[in-house]
Amino acid sequence: DIDVRLSDIKGMEEAKAEAAEVVALLKNADAIRETGLKAPKGVLLIGRPGTGKTMLAKAIANEAGVPFYALSGGDFQSMWAGVGANRVRAVYEQARRSGKPAIVFIDEIDAIGAKRGIDLGGGAIQDSNKTLNQFLVELDGFGKHKVLTIGATNNPDMLDAALLRPGRFDRRIDVPLPNLEGREAILMHYLRKVKVDETVNALDIARMTVFSSGADLANIVNEAGLMSIRDGRAHVCQKDLIAAIQRVQFGMSYHRHVLVKELMATAYHEAGHAMVCYCRDRRDLIQAVTIVPSGSALGYVWPVAKEDYVQKNKHEYLVDIEVALGGYAAENLYMETTTSGVASDLTNVAAIASAMVRQWGMGHYKFNTQIAFGDGRSSPSAETEREIELQIKEIVDRCLQNVENLLRSRRAQLDRLAHKLIEKETLYYRDLVAILEPERPAAEVEREIMQLAERKLVGKPPVINLEAIGISKARPESNSEANSSMQSNNQNMLPPD
């Protein structure tokens, strides 16, 4: 099923450019050898699940037009001793048989290439080590045997150091999550395969799917198509795509009888999240807030980052804690107690506050306390640990106080928002603005929805050229030419002072 070309892959221009260079190296393998240069013997594709690593490997094989052997790391595992090493030998013997360039692609390569362990007597670790040792021996690339090995993993830290050294996997291609333009291109690619109406706007959907992989976007388009069919329509509309995003991220919505008391608690909980997010978080835009049960949740707030980002500062992490505490504080304000529905929010609060103090230097300690006061495995002393715990508690208490002050000062709006949720069940950003900032003009709200963060292009754009290696015309100098060149260079050199 190698029916993918590099032109079909969207949202990873840098990775495509490196893949195009690999294709050019495969096509000019003999010319590269004649120049005395060494082409990469192994290419490691690294990226999150669903970013398109396997698709990129297929495109390399398709563009190069060479035999392609696709396996997974688990194919080399067996309950019988010695079978894994034999399978490794068999694959590479078959790939070398023609004497021409070939590709061996191993998906989830950490299953065979994980760090070697110490055998404790059971024999399993020893056999796994033998399989890896045989794999290391076979990784000769397409210099001597013309076999290029491509591996794919989303966990490179698990791989053995011997596997990553130059001469084996000596080239690494990072396959990132697509940016805004990449997501729009991916959505357009999949939307061409289904019937859509005039309401569909791929850019708007791309804005709502920040940090989504290519596989996520393909699933969203497919779910939208299924929703349109269930409704008896032949064309996908914008509402189908938005509903598909919510279904993929939060689960399928369902209807059931809910106790009025529980429904009011849920409405205040989600209203608290929404109000704190609206008032404090300027990096996210709330797409929807609902009290309709979905998946395992009784309701949810759907904030989407306005733009792709890589890192956050201390203030933004504090805002994340405050948004997570919004439901807890609103419940407490409404009924002077809380429900078990705050459990996941408080877990998130604890994780962020702990990381701020222990890892990111955002507390009193300006270093990683786990490494500084231990060896990465042991814990700090009891006195240090106590001080760390007090700092974490101080951060959370201060954030909770800020949230409670905000909700108390705007109690009337909180009540109005909760009752509007009871009435309509789902509210969108424009509905929130009408309740929380009714004086804002509609044009300003629309401008905020459409506005992107300020961006600047850093680095040079990649050049995707399948014939990038023009080595076939270049030939090394003859020995006489090289000697005369060296002599002329030596004559021009000045004697030392």
> How would you characterize the largest beta sheet?
5 strands, parallel
Q: Average pLDDT value?
A: 84
> What shape does the CA trace take?
globular
Helix coverage percent of residues? Answer: 40-55%
Low-confidence stretches: 471-497
Class of secondary structure makeup: alpha/beta
- In order across it, which strands form the biggest sheet? 2-3-4-1-5
Any idea what the radius of gyration is?
29 Å
Q: First CA to last CA: what distance?
A: 68 Å
Instruction: Please count the helical segments.
Output: 21
Secondary-structure element pattern, one letter each: HHEHEHEHHHEHEHHHHHEEHHHHHEHHH
Q: How many strands in all?
A: 8
Q: Strand-residue fraction?
A: 5-15%
Task: Give a structural overview.
- By secondary structure, the protein is α/β, with parallel strands linked by helices.
- Helices cover 52% and strands 9% of the residues.
- It is built from 21 helices and 8 strands.
- The strands form 2 sheets. The protein has a 5-stranded parallel sheet. It has a 3-stranded antiparallel sheet with strand order 7-6-8.
- The longest helix is centred in the C-terminal third of the chain and has 28 residues.
- The N and C termini lie far apart (68 Å).
- The C terminus is likely disordered.
